[in-house]
Structure formats: structure tokens, C-alpha cells
Write a structure and sequence with these properties.
Structural class: alpha+beta
Number of helices: 4
Order of helices and strands: EHHEEEEEEHH
Strand order of the largest sheet: 1-7-6-5-4
Distance between the termini: 30 Å
Largest sheet: 5 strands, antiparallel
């Protein structure tokens, strides 16, 4: 990507002066787009997997609750990652992860969207956007992107199963496996 930094004079900035330096002066933005075809109409798909806390089920995180705000509205915060809804349409939402005092802020955003293809079929799209400039090198960045793509493609497959009327297989090892899986995801993706 390109980086463009222009100084802002007080006249240009509405009297605010020069902005503070960027926290991350040389970001390396990455985006990942994944999609899956679903044999169900868009309304049915979104009703089954598009509620803000449905991620608990199709993401394998277990229980998801609303921490603050109104479910389905901008500014709502879910317990998975303390993620904040920052955008939405009839069949989509975008969320951001908050800044944490103890770690690198990677500007992480995700968008889930359902699109109609025909009266009886749809597509689910998932985009991730983040800064991975904190990683050691291109190989580490590529590995991170591949890990995220694998995990979120699995989530899309889970959404497809649910939206088509199926049920997800039980987690191996029961509840203990689910807790270990959630802990691993929390550390890998910065989710709490």
C-alpha cells in the first residue's frame, strides 16, 4: 500500500495545529477477503448467522453476550474481543477491536456480509483488515495472514452449515476443548 503524510498547518487544521505523530509511523496494512456460497435465501442466512453475538456459535467461542449498547446498533459491544460495531447495513456489519494498553494496536476491523445471488442462494463474505507491521518480517506476516484465513474460512463454513439448516459437530473433548480453543484464539487474535 501507499503511505501519504502531509503536514497540516494551523489554517488547514481549523486552528488545531500540527497533529501528533502517528503511533505506528510505518504501518503494513493487510486485508483478507473470504467468501462461501450458501444454498439459502439471504433473509434466512442473515437471520440465522447475522446477529452480532452469533459469532459465539459459528466462531466456536461459546457464550457471547452484549456488554454495552443496544444489540444490532452502532456502538454495541460484544463480549467476544470487546468488539464494537462501527458500521452496518441490512445484511452486514463491521466491527473493530478496542485499543489495549498492554499490546500493539493493529487497527483490526472485520466485516461480515450476506449477499443475495438468487431467490434461493446467497454468498457470505468476510473481510479482515489490520496492521501487521509489528511482526518480524514478510514470512511472519504471511504466516499470520494464512492462519487468519484458515480460521475465518472455517467460521464461514460453520455459517454455511447453520444457514443451510444443519448443526455443527460437537467440539472434540467437550467443554474443556472449547475453553482451550477459546484461550488459543484469544491469544492468537488478541480477542478477550
Amino acid at each position: 500500500g501507499q503511505t501519504c503524510a502531509l503536514p497540516i498547518s494551523p489554517a488547514q487544521g481549523g486552528g488545531r495545529g500540527t497533529p501528533a505523530p502517528l503511533l505506528v509511523p510505518n504501518p503494513h496494512y493487510a486485508s483478507i477477503h473470504m467468501t462461501v456460497d450458501v444454498n439459502a435465501p439471504v433473509d434466512k442466512v442473515w437471520a440465522r448467522v447475522g446477529k452480532y453475538c452469533d459469532i459465539g456459535e459459528w466462531g466456536g467461542f461459546g457464550n457471547c453476550t452484549i456488554l454495552s449498547g443496544t444489540d444490532g446498533e452502532l456502538g454495541v459491544v460484544r463480549s467476544i474481543g470487546s468488539e464494537i460495531m462501527v458500521g452496518k447495513t441490512q445484511y452486514s456489519y463491521t466491527y473493530a477491536q478496542p485499543v489495549r494498553a498492554s499490546s500493539f494496536y493493529n487497527v483490526y476491523h472485520g466485516t461480515l456480509e450476506a449477499r443475495p445471488v438468487s431467490a434461493t442462494t446467497s454468498q457470505l463474505h468476510y473481510w479482515l483488515f489490520f496492521d501487521n507491521s509489528n511482526l518480524a518480517d514478510d514470512a511472519a506476516r504471511e504466516a499470520d495472514i494464512n492462519n487468519r484465513r484458515t480460521r475465518f474460512t472455517g467460521m464461514l463454513q460453520n455459517m454455511k452449515i447453520l444457514a443451510e439448516g444443519g448443526t455443527l459437530p460437537p467440539a472434540r473433548g467437550g467443554r474443556q476443548r472449547s475453553e482451550e480453543h477459546t484461550s488459543e484464539l484469544q491469544s492468537r487474535f488478541g480477542i478477550s
